[in-house]
Amino acid sequence: MKYIPKRNFRYRVFLPLLALLALLGTGGTYAWKQWNLSVVNELKSHTTETEITEKFDQGSYTEATKTKEVSFKNTGSSSVFLRMSYEEYWTKQDGTEEIYLSNTVNNKDVAVKNWTGGFKPGSGSKDWWYGGDGWYYYTKVLPSQGSTPKVLASVTFPDYLNPAYTDYQGADYTLYFKSEVVQLSDGPGTLNSAEVNADATSTLFGMKAAVDGQGNVTWSKPDTN
């Protein structure tokens, strides 16, 4: 099947160099025109670099399930705290107007995301703590050149001949992931790294991170008192 570039979203963030804090990543765009995919990944800052890595198998037009493997890699030189979120939407042309279709039919997802590692939207998994704010927080320090396990394996689309899904014929499906990172303070010259890390993540993420000796991260909501 001919590959048709569809919808490209490009995000680039440049921030001044900070001694202890570093930020932001923004993720890839996954746009299906029935079975067609367009992807742009770009996550950069002055002190850290992360990327969303993927493997996409377009397969044949008749296949309902498309391989779409998604994970996150730290391509920078510093270890980081990581969080990610995702959004999805269906759009369709109605004459000269672009309209949005519901993501669900009869309370079921039209495009079924086949998550991995026990990940569940709204609750996360052992690798991803859900903060109740739309973000999923990685429960390990992500070292330089390190990658997370895959969070998504594939996406299954409906039978468009089914009367319940005929409105989705010819529609565009977009699945968009984004990520943000905060640089870990773990240098030998930082005597109060636990406090610095907690303050940094609380300020930038609105969530507090605590790291144990094995690099496991416990996330919590900061005290509001």
Molecular structure report:
This protein has 225 residues and is mainly β. It has a single domain, classed as Immunoglobulin-like (Sandwich), CATH 2.60.40. It has one helix at residues 193-205; strands spanning 29-33, 36-38, 50-57, 65-74, 80-94, 97-101, 104-105, 108-109, 112-115, 128-130, 136-138, 152-156, 172-183, 208-211, 217-220. Strands 1, 2, 5, 6, 10, 11 and 13 form a seven-stranded antiparallel beta sheet that branches. The protein is elongated, with a radius of gyration of 19 Å. The model is unreliable at 1-47 (pLDDT under 50).
Give the helix/strand class.
mainly beta
Q: Give the ordered list of helices and strands.
A: EEEEEEEEEEEEEHEE
| Low-pLDDT ranges | 1-47
- What number of domains? 1
Quick overview of this protein structure:
This protein is mainly β and 225 residues long. It is built from 1 helix and 15 strands; from the N terminus they run βββββββββββββαββ. It has one domain: Sandwich (Immunoglobulin-like).
Which short descriptors sum up this protein?
mainly beta; 15 strands; disordered N terminus; 6% helix; elongated; Immunoglobulin-like; 225 residues; 1 helix
